[in-house]
Amino acid sequence: MRTPGEGETAFPSSPAAAEQALPGPRRRPSVVLGVGGGIAAYKACELLRLFTESGHDVRVVPTRQALRFVGEPTWAALSGNPVAADVWESVHEVPHVRIGQGADLVVVAPATADLLARAAHGLADDLLTNTLLTARCPVVLAPAMHTEMWEHPATRANVATLRERGTLVVEPAVGRLTGADTGRGRLPDPVEIFEFCRGVLAGRPADLGGRRLVISAGGTREAIDPVRFLGNRSSGLQGYALARTALARGARVTLVAANVSLPDPAGATVVRVESALELREAVLKAAKEADAVVMAAAVADFRPARRSGSKVKKTSADPDPIYLVKNPDILAELGERRRQGEGLGPRVIVGFAAETDDVLANGRAKLARKGCDLLVVNQVGENLAFGTPDNAAVVLAADGDQVEIPLGPKEALADVVWDLVAERLA
């Protein structure tokens, strides 16, 4: 577990967390899973399974309306714990107080517009809202509702109030809603909610709270014709790890994803692009209001000078050569825009350099050219970095500092990067 540094704010410890730190057999982390009365309640079953199969002790607290979508026996069977929605059940155990007091994490998925309103105004008319008032551990709310409800000024005000109090309210995803409707308001993928919560349980500091971050991820594709393209082997795993860890540390994240086949990180605003030119447009637009930009995407240096409007056919003749032109240098452009005017562009700019040989020498030369504050240099190749769950790197800083990150999970590398970014933002 990472220890918060000077000037950082850690999530408040719960009595259960303090008990876990005592010597002796390790207690399973205690999670309260609240379930609101929305159609997405069925997805909470998968979230419950992810928690229980990874060793968490989960107590499900549904609202009365949630039980109209998924019954009490389902929650009890999947969690292995009793289920109650009313404060009048098992009164001798004082559940309206004890459940929240003993939790290491409270997560509500889905959190309906009604539930957000009741939580923001401190109402306590059922077991779940009582639990939210008594919890002294991190609280995560994953909203799900129709787009109009999410965008209503009352809901936005309630979300702002909850966030000001330290509640982690993740942004809903964009996608298919109830019926034929599509828009923002969809419950994030349960796997992504679980990963978000796992980051919170790991004790990540809230040192990026309220910061607006832009992250690029994946690899661009430059079209030759409607079928073929020039591309690279980037999977987007490192960029998505950066997004997840930043979200768990309280940031507002815009993720510009180039050709990535991964579920959206819970709470991120995802902008999907294909080519380097599309990525440049999206990053520069989002960077105007960003505190920091991290360019983790593998952006093609070149693109075909001409794109065929139809598939290039294979014939007996040799194919025509493909002439290439340079793509814009987005990282250098970010640095140049910042230099052009005071306050223009992000305060911290981070680049990535994928190298096959002379790694540090090439990295230092790139750092000098690009004008970024930090450059994450890593060696790539067969079974190195691209498409793997692990990564190793050296972070070079414009002020001469150098930080080595040993081989480990990409989330661990991401946390080191955010440590360095947070120091510079502070």
UniProtKB/TrEMBL annotation:
Family according to the record: In the N-terminal section; belongs to the HFCD (homo-oligomeric flavin containing Cys decarboxylase) superfamily. In the C-terminal section; belongs to the PPC synthetase family.
InterPro entries noted in UniProt: CoaB-like_sf, CoaBC, DNA/pantothenate-metab_flavo_C, Flavin_trans-like, Flavoprotein
Keywords tagged on the record: Decarboxylase, Flavoprotein, FMN, Ligase, Lyase, Magnesium, Metal-binding, Multifunctional enzyme
Matches recorded under Pfam families: DFP, Flavoprotein
EC number: 4.1.1.36, 6.3.2.5
Residues at which CTP binds: 301, 311, 328-331, 352, 366, 370
Protein name, per record: Coenzyme A biosynthesis bifunctional protein CoaBC
Pathway field: Cofactor biosynthesis; coenzyme A biosynthesis; CoA from (R)-pantothenate: step 2/5; Cofactor biosynthesis; coenzyme A biosynthesis; CoA from (R)-pantothenate: step 3/5
Cofactor, how bound (note): Binds 1 FMN per subunit.
Residue span of region Phosphopantothenate--cysteine ligase: 213-426
Cofactor names: FMN; Mg(2+)
Region (Disordered): 1-27
GO biological process: coenzyme A biosynthetic process; pantothenate catabolic process
Single GO molecular function: phosphopantothenoylcysteine decarboxylase activity
Domain named DNA/pantothenate metabolism flavoprotein C-terminal: residues: 209-423
Reaction catalysed by this enzyme: (R)-4'-phosphopantothenate + L-cysteine + CTP = N-[(R)-4-phosphopantothenoyl]-L-cysteine + CMP + diphosphate + H(+); N-[(R)-4-phosphopantothenoyl]-L-cysteine + H(+) = (R)-4'-phosphopantetheine + CO2
